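hey so u asked for the seq, here:
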Amino acid sequence: QVQLVESGGGLVQTGGSLRLSCVASGRTSGRTFSSYPMGWFRHTSGKGREFTARISGDDSSTSYADSVKGRFTISRDNAKNTLYLQMNNLKPQDTAVYYCAAREAPFSSSYYGNYDYWGQGTQVTVSS
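ran it, structure tokens below
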């Protein structure tokens, strides 16, 4: 089992920045944090759960939703078992609960149904 805990959400004005963190603990037997592809998703009542960004286990590959490309950066520090999402130039439409997720399979995915472990979420609110 992998446990994920997000932090870093909050209230920010349009154009501001936030950095979300997701700390992982526990693991499936024999595996390290670097073997888990990870993703960030966000949830709103209007759109449901939406892909935001994903990253490979070895940090060699990243992908972003078009809506956040050029503004958000996903990264990971495998030595600290931590995933990050740097969010710049925030817009009101970025307001959502943000979740990190980990996948048992070796490749990252943009589909939330392919992830096995989820954090509890952290609220991001962007005021206009």
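The radius of gyration is 14 Å. The mean pLDDT is 95.
lmk if thats what u needed
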